[in-house]
Structure formats: structure tokens, C-alpha cells
């Protein structure tokens, strides 16, 4: 079998590919550039905003059939939808239709902790709802906040100013590493039995951003400060790289985290998980270990 990973350059996708390789599973990347990421793996051009590219993975599989008939059939897809819209289903649903027609059996979709078909936050709930309507085999991975954002969004300020800013002064969050999300994705893609359609992926500890700043300070050996700012100030930052709809949604979920939206997941009882048809997957990488592993990103 072959597993298609969309969003070829993503951190989770790359880590997932290495995990699949270790399990002797063929991986195919789909990316806007068509580049091989990692270079050792096959890749095709795949762009959510260009439906003409949707057939490229299946064309690749067809071309490979003469060499490895069974191994190159695409049986599962890991979907990272377009991130520049609050209506990703508009772009993803047509691909789901095509993939199902081509014989894909399982769809694993990267969503967000608070999103499901009844709570369409950021448009992320529509795709699981669509998969369910179609009667397909699917799993929605719903990670809480990435600890990796310390580097991607806040790394420059940490390096240059010794501080980082949020609108979450006291909210506790079970920050999760992309390595652990990739492990959850591996399980969702390769486990023949689907235990739960929704998998909320959390880190092993609940931390405030002040707690996180203390851990960064400890690892770097210099004082790093978390500065709480107003929603208006933070909105200006997001508007530097995101549309107004996306920026306003990001502020909304951050304000929800301040009043406890993310802190509920680690303490959710097994009974409540079963009642909601979800499973809480607890990652292994704590904040300090992640920082030690990625310390060079802040130097």
C-alpha cells in the first residue's frame, strides 16, 4: 500500500513519513512545488487551489503499478487542508470525492482540538462532517496548541528581544509537539481498527505561557519573558501574514484558551471520551525535553 501525505513540506508530514518508512510503508508526498521532501521520497505536484493537480498522486500510482502493483496503490491519505481560508471544505471535498472513487479506504484529517461537526471553528468541522456524510472511513486528528509555535511564531522575538507575546495571560494549555502528532497520525493511518473518529492530541503537561517562558529561560540560560498584550495588538501581528478572517479566528481561539478551552482535555474521563466518540491521545515529549532537542532554533 501507499499512503499519500498532502502538505509535503509540513513538519508533521515529514516526521510522519519517517515513521511510516520505519514501518516499511510506501509514502508519497503531495506539495505545491512538487519537490521531494524529504528528498529520498517520491513527490508529486498537489495544490488545493488547483483541482487539476488532484489526480497527480493517482497517476503516479498507476505508472508505478507495472513495477510494484500492490505496494503502490494509494489506500490512505493524510490531509492537511489549505490554511489560508476559513472554508477549507470548499477545496478539500472535491479531492475526497476523487480519492474515494480511486479506491482510498481511509482518510486522516488534521483538524484542531475544539473542532468537530457540531463546532465548526475556523471551518475545520465541515470536513469530518463531509467524510461522515459520504460513509467513508475517517479519523480527525485534533491537536491542541503546538509547542513548535515557540520557534515558528515567537522564535525571532525570543532571540532578539528576550520575550514573546500572547493574549493568554493565565490560561493553561497542554502544549503538544509535532513529533507526538505524527505518532498519533501513524496510529490513525495504520491501525486496522478505528477506536474513535476524533482523536484529541495533547502534550503530557498543562502549562501557562509564563510557565513556558520559565522553561525557555532555564534551557537557554537567560531570562525570557512572556508579555500579555491586548487582542488588538495581537491582531496586528497576525494580519502581517494572515487574512482578516483567519487572524480574527486565531484571536478568538486564544481568548477561549484563556478561559479554559484547552485545559479540559487531559482530565476528560474515559466515560466522557466514549460519550463524545473521541479519544485523548497523550504525547510523550514534555516542554523542557522539546526545548533541549530544539535549543539551536533560539540561539
Automatic annotation (TrEMBL):
<dbReference type="InterPro" id="IPR036291">
    <property type="entry name" value="NAD(P)-bd_dom_sf"/>
</dbReference>
<feature type="domain" description="NAD(P)-binding">
    <location>
        <begin position="64"/>
        <end position="191"/>
    </location>
</feature>
<dbReference type="InterPro" id="IPR016040">
    <property type="entry name" value="NAD(P)-bd_dom"/>
</dbReference>
<dbReference type="Pfam" id="PF13460">
    <property type="entry name" value="NAD_binding_10"/>
</dbReference>
<dbReference type="InterPro" id="IPR051604">
    <property type="entry name" value="Ergot_Alk_Oxidoreductase"/>
</dbReference>
<protein>
    <submittedName>
        <fullName>NmrA family protein</fullName>
    </submittedName>
</protein>
